[in-house]
Specification:
Elements: E1 2-6, E2 15-19, E3 29-38, H1 41-47, H2 61-71, E4 84-92, E5 104-108, E6 119-123, E7 128-130, H3 137-140, H4 144-154, E8 164-168, H5 173-184, E9 188-193, H6 198-203, E10 208-211, E11 224-229, H7 236-239, E12 243-251, H8 256-267, E13 272-275, H9 282-294, E14 304-306, H10 310-318, E15 327-329
Parallel strand pairs: 8-9, 8-11, 9-10, 11-12, 12-13, 14-15
Antiparallel strand pairs: 1-2, 3-4, 3-6, 3-15, 4-5, 5-7
């Protein structure tokens, strides 16, 4: 088998395509031939983790310390990146009951990563299910993480039909999922993204948009019941005028300052700050599959790169020119 291996931290050129021994599934494991995997924000972050500054990290500093502890301080402990995937099961362990050889599946590996490889061996109990029948593996691989996180986040938000929602970072994995899930709940959704990705979020169904390279939503007169800031780019102080009287500013990435604001606004004032984290649940992945197969949830991706051009894929993903999730095809 072949794997894209991270031997040291650095620029995209540190990614090397190497030959490795194909694993053999144990009793409760399955062997998946990976067809496609996306280049996620987490992949870009981990690849150059040593250079990330505490001031630039979009969560409290302790989270960066914990990330370096988990992934390695001076050199990578986890050498194969990739958290999402789509592929075909080519072998199953003797006690496997959920899947069979030949099943097309998609799933999410979390912080353990490992999908930048031609073959992946994981327990059948992992976060995966059979691929929706009406989309390609390239489409399926870029769905799980963002949608699973968005589903759990929205369970913590009192969103109602007719609410006006603004999503800052609408073209990313979580943002693009929020667009569609909020629309399914009857919300009026406005998205913010760069010029290259405007058509992408329009195709996902936004009612309105701001191209942050050309306009600033803070200078408009529009107000929103909920503002989702995926990467924590805007302050609550700046956004207060764009919130309705009882509006909520929701941070999915946040610093200690936002946590303190959440505590304070819980007791004082009508406008609230919420700092929310999502988690992955298998039942949500099954619900997502059903939404996709019913046509209620659209999946689109951007440029596709072959496995031997992984550094090029990372460079393109970081360029700001991508018009949707960047995919690495493994076959």
């Amino acid at each position: 088998m072949r794997a894209i291996v991270l031997t040291k931290y650095g620029n995209p050129d540190v990614l090397e395509l190497l030959e490795k021994q194909t694993p053999e599934p144990r009793e409760h494991e399955i062997l998946i031939k990976i067809i496609a995997t996306p280049v996620s924000y987490a992949d870009l972050l981990v690849r150059n983790l040593r250079a990330v500054k505490y001031s630039d990290f979009n969560m409290p500093g302790i989270f960066l310390f914990l990330a370096r502890f988990a992934f390695g301080f001076s050199k990578p402990k986890i050498k194969v990146l990739g958290s999402e995937f789509a592929g075909e099961i080519v072998k199953v362990g003797s006690s496997v009951t959920r899947f069979a050889t030949g099943d097309l599946v998609f799933g999410y590996l979390g912080q353990n990563m490992g999908s930048y490889t031609s073959h992946l061996c994981i327990p059948e109990s992992a976060m995966l299910t059979t691929k929706p029948c009406n989309i390609s593996p390239e489409q399926a691989c870029c769905v799980p993480m963002g949608a699973l996180m968005a589903m759990e986040i929205l369970k913590q938000v009192p969103l109602q039909k007719g609410n006006r929602v603004l999503i800052i970072g609408a073209s990313g994995g979580i943002g693009s999922a929020l667009i569609q899930l909020c629309k399914l709940q009857g919300a009026h959704v406005t998205g913010i993204c760069g010029t290259e990705r405007v058509s992408y979020i329009q195709n996902l169904g936004v009612d309105n948009f701001y191209d942050y390279q050309k306009s600033n939503f803070l200078q408009s007169d529009n107000t929103y019941d909920f503002i989702f800031d995926v990467l924590g780019r805007y302050s609550f102080k700046d956004c207060k005028a764009r919130l309705t009287t009882n509006g909520k500013m929701i941070y999915i990435s946040f610093k200690t300052k936002q946590l303190l604001q959440m505590i304070r606004t819980h007791f004082f004032g009508k406008q609230k700050v919420l700092c929310l984290l999502g988690s992955e649940k298998l039942e949500n992945l099954e619900k997502l599959k059903a939404l996709i197969e019913s046509g209620s949830y659209t999946v689109k991706h951007g440029k596709v790169f072959p496995m031997n051009e992984a550094p090029k894929a990372h460079r393109y993903a970081e360029s700001g020119k991508k018009d949707g999730p960047v995919i690495i095809k493994m076959i």
